[in-house]
Amino acid sequence: MIKIEIQKFLELSENFPVIDVRSPSEHIYGHIPGAINIPLFDDHEREVVGTEYKNAGRVKAILKGLELAGPSLYKKLTEALKSAKTGKLLVHCWRGGMRSEAMAWLFSIGGIDTEILEGGYKSYRNHILSVLSQQRRMIILGGMTGSGKTHILKYIKNNGHQVIDLEGIANHKGSAFGALGQPPQPSSEHFANLLYDEWRHLDENMPVWLEDESRNIGNVFMPDTFYGNMLDSPAIILLMDIKTRLPELLKEYSVYPPGIIKESIMKIRKRLGGEETASAIRAVDSGDFAKAIEIILGYYDRAYLFGIKRRKPERIVYVDADTGNIEKNAGKVLEAANKIKW
Q: How does pLDDT run across 110-163, given as a tens digit for each residue?
């Protein structure tokens, strides 16, 4: 049984399975991407052992833990053996203490070579937040809702540039309608884990393209320093009128039932105002989705233009886009990027 620091642990994780022995709820809330959850205790057992530790001390808690975990050790080792196809596993708990040591001992009985993360998941979190706070060259692609930013970034990525899809990681498109058609969002903690997992595989000598976002994407919040670095980075802002943006937005959102669209409108009713909200609802009821979208865009356009003021004017390049053609707009964006002075 060997304990290793986080850098070595992550290097080895490229080739060997990571076993998270924390409780299921801990794992679900946030974990090392790709980690397999083989918990020493389920959520109830963890609570019982914690209470025993608090009330009766360490030894009593260990005895209670053995009592609770003992009957399921066969199942846990069987699961570990299925995962250890190369005969080696990487194990962690919260702090790299008794839970990971107990499971490493169990796995060793089955002949599995096991290495434990020194400091546990907590050391992983400290590491990723430190890395994500470091300044790297970023190019931020901005523009008002419906400008095709996500599609442009996909095109740019397919042409050899480094792109991270923040909305894809967050399972949300960033507006009151952003959750439509999306799977459940991760916690803010796990969002950072997923972001780091992509970030660490990028070439530090090349800039990273990101879409302009608020600090929160739906219910997910980006790490503070990472978001601050985004705000300080050069931004390319697409300028596109509402009529050019409407067709794509209509295609994207008119497929949803009117009831769901109205629910999304009601989420921003305080910001839209009573009159505009009522007008948008009436437009949906009458099947005039174009009018409803125009009303809603009026609010989001104002909000976005206000948000641009957070950026330094000298770090912004504006690009006029008079068409919804992704390839043409991507060409303009890349041309503007070539003029950025680092």
A: 999 999 999 999 999 999 999 999 999 999 999 999 999 999 999 999 999 999
Q: In whole angstroms, what is the distance from residue 99 CA to residue 122 CA? A: 14
Taking only the tens place, the pLDDT of each residue in 40-53 is 999 998 888 888 88
Cα–Cα distance measured from residue 337 to residue 46, given in angstroms and rounded to the nearest whole number: 52
Structural domains in the chain plus CATH codes: 2-129 (3.40.250.10), 137-337 (3.40.50)
CA distance 196 to 192: 6
The rounded distance, in Å, linking the Cα atoms of 158 and 329 is 15
Other Cβ atoms within 10 Å of 219 Cβ, number: 15
- pTM for the model stands at 0.92
Query: Which of these is catalytic: 93, 169, 210, 222?
Result: 93
Please state, in angstroms and rounded to a whole number, the distance separating the CA atoms of residues 221 and 230: 14
Q: How far apart are the first and last CA of the chain?
A: 47
Question: Quick check: helix, strand or coil at residue 18?
Answer: strand
CA–CA distance, 153 with 157 (Å, rounded to integer): 6
DSSP conformation letters of 136-197: --EEEEEESTTS-HHHHHHHHHHTT-EE--HHHHHT--SSTTTTTT-PPPPPHHHHHHHHHH
Distance of CA 296 to the CA centre of its chain: 26
Question: Which residues contact residue 149 at a Cβ distance below 8 angstroms, ignoring those fewer than 6 apart?
Answer: 141, 142, 143, 211, 212, 238
Strand ranges of the sheet holding 2-4, from the earlier edge strand across to the other edge: 2-4, 113-117, 88-92, 18-20, 36-37
Give every CB contact of residue 268 below 8 A, 6+ residues apart in sequence. Answer: 176, 277, 296, 299
Residue 99 neighbours by CB under 8 Å, 6+ apart: 21, 22, 40, 41, 93
Give the integer Cα–Cα distance in Å for 281 and 265: 8
Active site residue 93: yes
